[in-house]
Automatic annotation (TrEMBL):
Gene name as annotated: paaA
Protein name: 1,2-phenylacetyl-CoA epoxidase subunit A
Molecular-function GO term, any one: phenylacetyl-CoA 1,2-epoxidase activity
Pfam families (alphabetical): PaaA_PaaC (PF05138)
Keyword Oxidoreductase assigned: yes
Amino acid sequence: MYTQAMDTMGKEAQNAPAAGQPAALAPHQQQLMARFDARIDDGGFIEAKDWMPDHYRRTLIRQISQHAHSEIVGMLPEGNWVTRAPTLKRKAILLAKIQDEGGHGLYLYAAAETLGRSRDELLADLHSGKAKYSSIFNYPTLTWADVGVIGWLVDGAAIMNQVPLCRCSYAPYARAMVRICREESFHQRQGYDALLAMMQQGTDAQRALVQDAVNRWWWPCLMMFGPPDAESVHTAQSMRWGIKRNSNDELRQKFVDATVQQAQVLGVSLPDPELTWNETRQHWDFGAIDWEEFWRVVGGDGPCNAERLAARVKAWDDGAWVREAALAHAAKEQARQTQQEAA
Ligand code: BYC
């Protein structure tokens, strides 16, 4: 279906420069590149069948597939609480939220497939540990308050990061993000609502659970935005191409600024003694993030990395019969149709 979009891959590979050499583009490719650059400079969109440089394509496949993996791995920490939600209403909300996240994964895998890599290949990269997914999902959900805090802080951080992606220069990704962001906004509110119920109508013990969950999730949420700009290898080029519209540090600051007041309304404290309003900057200053912890978790050594990956691999293996049955059904339908056409 998207074969035209894949055409350039082999040709560009043939023209790949020797190590350390700038790419030498053939004249027709220079023209295509100039047209591509002009469209990006105008703030225009690139569609699946448009020509695009190989590096742009690879950057998008990396980011979109990691994003898709994050959505389906992100179902697991909350899934832990479906059978233990405190009321039928909270259980129904949680089930709907987790189902939404599965749907987000599907939109994003579909967007990544338009760039020429199949879903099976992308999932194989996840299962082998080659592909990354968001660091945040390698932390455990110890109490019901964690589910509320995931909605409030994790989804809140996700929205801050993902709203600008609705204007990403790659149109299939941007379109997927519009729908995802609408749903994320409900996810964030349900988390905040669950926490408000615990803080305002709960017992002292329940309020303590909320504070404990906030203490554990706050710093990992700040890490979700990625390494500091000075160490972010991809930000400059991704912003040049309009894939990212803001840097990691800009979004992290916006998240802190938006969250402080929400914490005050909720009646919890944020676990950072250095959090202070800076009148000159008109922003909240915050303390140092433990980047060693971040890279350890990204590198596979977080509290739940092994458990999360094992759960995804098991789901894939357990689903083998469904994929086989669907393929057998499709083959039978195809054969029946061919017979009917021949008759
Ligand atoms: N965790 O140069 P940088 C959600 C990697 S879904 C792990 O700044 P970039 C939700 C980065 O990939 C949340 N790895 O990269 C779901 C790169 O490694 P590679 C996910 C991270 O791409 C369900 C290296 O560090 N959101 O919220 O310019 C339920 C250098 O980083 C992380 C998205 O995926 C991390 N936190 O910027 C509830 C949004 N941060 O690839 C909620 C789309 C960085 O060179 N993605 N790395 O091996 C993005 O916006 C960007 O890819 C990032 C990173 C801001 C994440």
